[in-house]
Amino acid sequence: MTTEKIAAINPWQVAQHQFDLAAERLQLDDGMRRVLREPRREFTVHFPVKMDDGSVRVFTGYRVQHNLGRGPAKGGIRYHQDVSLDEVKALAMWMTWKCAVVGIPFGGGKGGVIVDPKQLSKKELEALSRRYFTEIEVLVGPEKDIPAPDVNTNAQVMSWFMDTFSMHQGYTVPGVVTGKPISLGGSEGRNEATARGTVYCIIEAARHLGLELPKAKVSIQGFGNAGAIAAQLMAEEKATIVAVSDSTGGIHNPNGLEVNKVIAWKQEHGTVQGFPGADDITNAEVLEVQCDILIPAALEGQLTERNAGNVKARLVAEAANGPTTPEADEIFWKKGIFMIPDILCNAGGVTVSYFEWVQDLNRDHWTEAEVNAKLKAIMVKAFQETLAIARRDQTYMRTAAYLLAVQRVADATMMRGLYP
Ligand code: NAD
Questions:
Q1: Does residue 320 line the site of ligand 1, with CB under 6 A?
Q2: Domain with 117 in it: what CATH number?
């Protein structure tokens, strides 16, 4: 597929295109390409939920398992009005590569429900969560497929999933989902893990680029689990957060925003906009403000051929999955912008999910210091391995991460052989 043709395409086509580039460079044989290019399983469910007014609504959800070669499927569940099967397929494929980049023994999966959860009461959200999980139960289990939080799902939703599964089994099964609260077998540090992994990568990249974090200005799109915690952790590194945004829009202050006050403001007002001492800007402007480090931490397809040329940052760290299209990647490469690709940059979340699963299976509980130390070791190793390939092959970091990941998955697939 040419880059011209992928101008207005969906995440699944982007994901397959990224895979094709890696497969070509690795000279994978045609059979292996055909196997790894498609998801192993795609499951669609339509399920009823009784609403508070007594009416019944039918929702549509998905669970996709892209690859199970290196272990059980692993990947979050997203609640969003724009969820589609193609989006979930892309996210599942990215999970396969992500688990391989950081070397944890999982394959890739992802799930989603087409719903705007902000329109539901807590009771309706619980009913939807329990029924959706019941519908996908034929696929999930601690040895088969282990979901986790993603956009608009959290520790509460994971608790309902875990309880629903456990009720059906007749005993408590903490290892069926990760991202649970500590009281239910969750791991210390899981809530911050995605952002912490992103910041470990940024520290490594900054060292490589000779960028001093205490002098760096940072702009962040998305102010949820990944974005808001990344803002806090970057502030701890003494960087200046100049702009942030959520789904309602952004705010900007070139002299710096006080992150904890912005978090409190959002909690009180439901939006970052209107924050005292900052200018309201659009979500598009957040990506283009004067800064050294840009952290997209919202949704896919945000950095495209239309706006990539306007990005001022030297370093783009993809806390979100799939925020950059292949055309934007090429623009960044030509402009000399250093990119930490999603499958590496946000792998901290799944890495600590892996720790949580190991602790659950062993009925163990590690300290936060242990979790963070193990996370750091894995992230730094994965970053350095990716950087070494990028330097060796004179290519950009996304391609390097794909070369590392796809080769690992292809090796595992080759050694297992073709059944029957
Ligand atoms: P979240 O629901 O906690 O937060 C999402 C944030 O994005 C919210 O602040 C929301 O207002 C904002 N947002 C939504 N649409 C937007 C838009 N059009 N423009 C700007 N902001 C918008 O979700 P999250 O868990 O932080 O996930 C964010 C991204 O990080 C996703 O791409 C997700 O797949 C990825 N990710 C999350 C994890 C995790 O552990 N939570 C792990 C890996 C990757």
A1: yes
A2: 3.40.50.10860
Nearest residue by C-alpha to atom 4 in ligand 1: 224
- Does ligand 1 come within 6 angstroms of the Cβ of 246? yes
Q: How far is the CA of 20 from the centre of ligand 1 (A)?
A: 27
Query: Structurally, how many domains does the chain consist of?
Result: 2
Residue 283: inside a domain:
yes
Amino acid at 111: G
Domain membership of residue 71 as a residue range: 39-176
Residue 181 domain-assigned (yes or no): no
Q: Is 110 one of the annotated active-site residues of the chain?
A: yes
Q: Are 227 and 293 in contact (CB under 8 A)?
A: no
Whether 96 is in a domain gets the answer: yes
AA identity, residue 417: G
pLDDT digits (tens, 9 = 90+) for 161-218: 999 999 999 999 999 999 999 999 999 999 999 999 999 999 999 999 999 999 999 9
Other Cβ atoms less than 10 A from the Cβ of 166: the count is 15
Residue ID of nearest Cα to ligand 1 atom 35: 320
Asked whether residue 291 is assigned to any structural domain, the reply reads yes
- Cα-Cα-Cα-Cα dihedral sign, residues 384, 386, 389, 394: negative
- CA atoms of 111 and 89, how far apart (whole Å): 9
User: Whose C-alpha lies nearest to ligand 1, atom 32?
Assistant: 320
Active-site residue among 74, 89, 98, 110? 110
Q: What would the pLDDT profile of 42-65 be if each residue is shown by its tens digit?
A: 999 999 999 999 999 999 999 999
| CA of residue 317 to ligand 1 center, whole Å | 14
Q: Tell the residue number behind the tokens 């460079």, with chain if given.
A: 25
